[in-house]
Each structure stands twice: as structure tokens, then as C-alpha cells.
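Reminder to self: C-alpha cells first, then the designed residues, so the page reads top to bottom the way the pipeline ran.
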């Protein structure tokens, strides 16, 4: 999977230049042109690096940098044209990993991004207790922490809902009957009330599906059961 980079930059030409060069190098890039929205995305989704302009609408790059650092160690490269910004980035201890001044050479930017991502990968890879995380399109399941995010937003699942989701997601495209699911999740012979499966599927869909009438993840196979679609 390619590394994801979030570019928070309100100058369209610069943002597109950064994106084009980074994509040529195999990175996957998203652009946000507003500071506050950028911070939200940075905190709610999973990126491998942030490229952060200083002057932005609604929230400046210094504040965004500080707030990202309170929550995560993802590399941050700050971009600015003003000398006083650079002094601030260096002096304030905001936690930025690097900075680059405008105008910059795109190949210099790409080289720095590659170096920071490689360094961060080594750092994260060397940590012993990596959580067991599954990602299926917009869904992220941290099996170790038993937490679930849908399009970056954390959802609160009951223990049974969580087990049901993990079980289905671990067997993509496999159709299970209600009886099979009941046996698996409720861990007893299927003499109980299998209607409970229907109820839990319904509740789970309300939490993970955008439109429960047109489920994108948990499909009903009429007359047979359910499957997790990938
Ligand atoms: Ca700007």
C-alpha cells in the first residue's frame, strides 16, 4: 500500500505541484486548503506524513503542528516563504521534523519526504507492541485496542458487535448463514434465538454503513445469510 500524505496548503498551484511530484514518486496524496479541516483530517485519519503550510485560513500551521504533535508522531514538514516563520519553526519547539522555504525545488521536497517516511517507518517498525490493525476501505479495526473507525470517525461498538464485525471482515466475500454466525459469536450450539443475529447485524450496519438500505460492507444474501463485501 502506498504511503499517504496529507498536504495542507491553500495556494492551489503549490498544492498541486507538491501532489504531482509526490504521486510520481508513488505516494498517495490528499490536499486540504483550510487549516481547521486539515487538522481534523490529520487527527481522524491515518497518514504517513504531513506537509503543512504556515499561513492558512481558519488555523495557522503552527497551531496545527502543535495539535498534531499532542496526538501523534507522524513526520511533519512545514513550508513557508517568510524568514520569520522559519525562525519560529526552529525556535518554538512545535515538533515539526523539518521545514522547506518557498520557492522550493520539487525534487528536494520529494527527497525530504522519502527520508522522513523511511526514518519514521524504522522507528515505528522497531516498536515491539504494534497493534493488530485491519483496514477495509473506509473501515479501520484495531483488534488489539478493540476500536473501530469509519471514514476516520471512531464508532462505539458493543463487544458482540465488535466480534461480529471482526469475524465477517476476516472472512471477506464468504457467505455465512445466521446459524453459523450465531455459533461463532455466541459460542454455543445453535439452539438459541438466531433472530439475535439479525438484530446485531442491523445495529452494526447503523454504525458502519453510510446507507443501511444499501450496505457497502455487510451484504444480505437473501435466503442464505450475510457476507462482508470487499
Ligand atoms: Ca498559505
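Designed residues (230 positions):
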Amino acid at each position: 500500500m502506498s504511503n499517504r500524505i496529507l498536504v495542507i496548503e491553500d495556494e492551489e498551484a503549490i498544492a498541486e505541484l507538491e501532489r504531482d511530484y509526490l504521486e510520481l514518486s508513488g505516494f498517495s496524496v490528499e490536499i486540504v486548503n483550510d487549516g481547521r479541516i486539515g487538522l481534523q483530517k490529520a487527527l481522524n485519519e491515518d497518514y504517513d506524513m504531513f506537509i503543512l503550510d504556515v499561513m492558512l485560513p481558519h488555523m495557522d500551521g503552527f497551531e496545527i503542528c502543535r495539535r498534531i504533535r499532542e496526538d501523534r508522531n507522524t513526520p511533519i514538514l512545514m513550508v513557508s516563504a517568510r524568514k520569520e516563520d522559519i525562525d519560529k519553526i526552529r525556535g518554538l519547539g512545535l515538533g515539526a521534523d523539518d521545514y522547506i522555504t518557498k520557492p522550493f525545488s520539487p525534487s528536494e521536497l520529494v527527497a525530504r519526504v522519502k527520508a522522513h517516511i523511511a526514518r519514521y517507518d524504522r522507528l515505528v517498525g522497531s516498536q515491539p507492541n504494534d497493534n493488530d490493525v485491519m483496514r477495509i476501505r473506509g473501515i479501520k479495526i484495531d483488534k488489539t485496542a478493540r476500536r473501530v473507525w469509519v471514514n476516520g470517525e471512531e464508532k462505539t461498538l458493543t463487544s458482540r458487535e465488535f466480534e461480529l464485525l471482526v469475524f465477517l471482515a476476516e472472512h471477506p466475500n464468504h457467505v455465512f448463514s445466521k446459524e453459523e454466525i450465531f455459533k461463532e459469536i455466541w459460542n454455543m450450539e445453535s439452539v438459541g434465538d438466531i433472530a439475535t443475529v439479525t438484530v446485531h447485524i442491523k445495529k452494526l450496519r447503523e454504525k458502519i454503513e453510510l446507507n443501511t438500505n444499501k450496505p457497502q460492507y455487510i451484504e444480505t444474501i437473501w435466503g442464505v445469510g450475510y457476507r462482508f463485501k470487499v
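The domain at 133-228 is CATH 1.10.10.10 (Arc Repressor Mutant, subunit A).
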